[in-house]
Amino acid sequence: MIVSPSGVSEVESTIALPIRRLTTLDGDAGFGRSAPIAVRSRDRIVVSRRGMVTCHDPSFQHELWRMPRQDWPDLYPIDRNLWITSSPHAILVDVDSGTVIRAMSYSGSVMTAAAEWLCTYDNQTKHSQILSSDGAVRWRGPLVSSMVFNDRFVCFSHDVGRKVTCIAQDSWEELWTWSVPQTGGEVRQVAAGFPGIALLGSRVLLTTTDMEIVELEATTGEQVHVCTVRPGGGFFVTDTQFVFWNGVSLTSVDHSSWRTSVEDRPDLSQLYGRHPPTANAFTMSTRALVWTTMHGALMATSLDRSSPREVWEVTIPGAIMPISVPPLLCGRHMYYTARGGHYRLDVYVGA
């Protein structure tokens, strides 16, 4: 599954059950205890480890290039390019060749990146800012919780997820700010999700922590639609629907007609044993659903409606809870970063 900078996911991986572990890439067992972090750039997998960035084919049989870097570099894929950041330096790299396209300097920490700019957080001024590749400040504002963008708009949540602001990319002017309605005693926020904001053209699709979906018009901030999802759970957004998964129920909401369908899977309860059914983070291929649990397991089930459906489960020894990052999928392969115990990147292959 590919998650675009606009927050919209494309379900195109074909991994299916059965799944088996193919290889393991060890992390740093010394100071910092870092696990390798993998990101996908089309049909390439790029891995960040302490002092190094490497690029691999999906099966990890071939290392295509490597680049020494300081500390633990962060990676931000942009189509076939990739920002590699390690304060105070950032470089944009061609993923196919490993060639550096441009370099820039920044202060603070990078929060997200586009081809022509970085969004950073300045630790001294306590502000977020968008820096163009020549170092010019295009926008400065409050601490950003999550940010998505397309070629026209930049939308971000702030105030601990209680507000959403939209910026026009042609002028870098703020168009509007929308506040999550607060009712009752609990604080309502835009969900962290995958993320809780998605941009589809001039539509802004928001998901709140109490599983309410809100559609806003990107130019004006006008509310177009609102509905509540039951049952909810972890989620992602595609160009046609919202998909929610809570460990035993799969809920789909068509965001054109706003029709909802729910598929319950009580047969999966046996996978959890004595643990309650949970889904911390999940992802989906065209043939399977894969998720992590609160008790340190990776689980998967076939999307084929034939009976009995295939299921798969593997426990991650010493995993640090919660496992909130979903596995990464590419073709028939799956990648999972395990933290705690043996810090590593596990590479799996499916049918």
Please name the defining characteristics of this protein:
4-stranded antiparallel beta sheet, 351 residues, Methylamine Dehydrogenase, Chain H, mainly beta
CATH-defined topology: Methylamine Dehydrogenase, Chain H
Task: State mean pLDDT (0 to 100 scale).
Answer: 91
What is the spatial order of strands in the main beta sheet?
3-34-33-32
The CATH H-level homologous superfamily:
YVTN repeat-like/Quinoprotein amine dehydrogenase
> Major β-sheet, in short?
4 strands, antiparallel
- The general outline is globular
Question: How would you describe what is shown here?
Answer:
This protein is mainly β and 351 residues long. It has a single domain (2-350), classed as YVTN repeat-like/Quinoprotein amine dehydrogenase (Methylamine Dehydrogenase, Chain H, 7 Propeller). Helices cover 1% and strands 51% of the residues. It contains one helix and 34 strands. A four-stranded antiparallel sheet has the order 3-34-33-32, with no helix packed on it. It has a four-stranded antiparallel sheet with strand order 4-5-6-7, with no helix packed on it. A hairpin with a 5-residue loop joins strand 22 and strand 23 (223-228). The relative contact order is 0.15. The mean pLDDT is 91.
